[in-house]
TrEMBL record:
Name of a matching Pfam family: COG6_C
BP GO terms, sorted: intra-Golgi vesicle-mediated transport
Organism, scientific name: Canna indica (Indian-shot)
Compositionally biased tracts (Basic residues): 152-161
Signal peptide residues on this chain, from the entry's feature table: none
Domain Conserved Oligomeric Golgi complex subunit 6 C-terminal: 3-358
SMART domains xref list: COG6
Name of the protein in question: Conserved oligomeric Golgi complex subunit 6
Region of interest: Disordered: 151-171
Record's GO cellular component terms: Golgi transport complex
Amino acid sequence: MAFVLDRIFEGACRPFKIRVEQVLQSQPSLIISYKLSNTLEFYSHTISDLLGKDAALCNTLWLLKDAAQQTFFNILRSRGEKLLRYPPLVAVDLSPPPAVREVVSLLLELIDTYKSMMIPASDKKTDFDPVVTALLDPLVQMCEKAAEAHKSKGAVSRRSRTSSDLGSSSRDSLTVDAMLSKKTSNLTQDTEMSTKIYLINCLSAIQLPLVGQEVAGNYLNKLTSAIDTNISNLVRKEVDAILMRCGLLSKLSYIQKSISGDDGSEPGPLAEAEEMSPVVLSECLRTFFELATGNEGLLPEFEQLQLPSLRSDARIRVARALADGYELLYQAVVDPKNNYPDPRSLMRHSPDQIRTILEI
């Protein structure tokens, strides 16, 4: 019976093959090529079960399925190359480019198609990970290239402004050098911050619509990890900037080296070190508390982070890091071996009080 059916269907193979190849050569859309590939795969399995794997129609179906699948991935690759060839400019508000929304919408449509595809009883659905990776990897790389270009553009702008300032203020070179050094440092920090925030906004815009989509689970984990890494880097930069404004960054570094012995010298009382003297620390702490209790507050708002949950998370991480840094300084000052004459007067607030001030 199978032999007879094979001979009957054999005559349909050539015209069927020609018609499908015409469709593939007509540059179908990504969705059409994916649906065609899935449909051909379903009937390849079905006909194999019915006529056997060596049947002429079965061989034709497998051949066309492979061709449709190749066309689909070729389209994906072409889209990815186009994204990477023309990375967008970073928006003033650091929002994700329109390409993010377009690609994610396309992926969601592909996921719906994947979920509704027919599966023969003798087989299981194909792995969807290669589709997700082929579609999203170039998108993420495009966002990274745009962020890098934004960072480089900021560096060029800084150099231009620095040269201009030097040309107009050459009479007091020491003062100019100090001012420009501080100005350049602030501009560098702002550019790095905006670059990280832009990447976080892009990654979260890709991640959020895919939450709950089981077939994209592996890539979701990858995105979550990347977002967390960028948030951690953003928080570390912000904490360092705040501590530097207060003059405490170098002090905490000194304490950490003293505890670990990384400075290579025999640790002595901290109060005897010039940069750790009570007078120096008192001035740093005064600045710290002025910032903490002032109208502007000590903690950044991260207003350009588009997800409220990420803004809150980043703010809490900064607060905890500052509180931990204060506690490290507090423990060092009240430690009798460091010879501070009146540690309680110098460190007027306990670590718990600082956590209350920072609302954690």
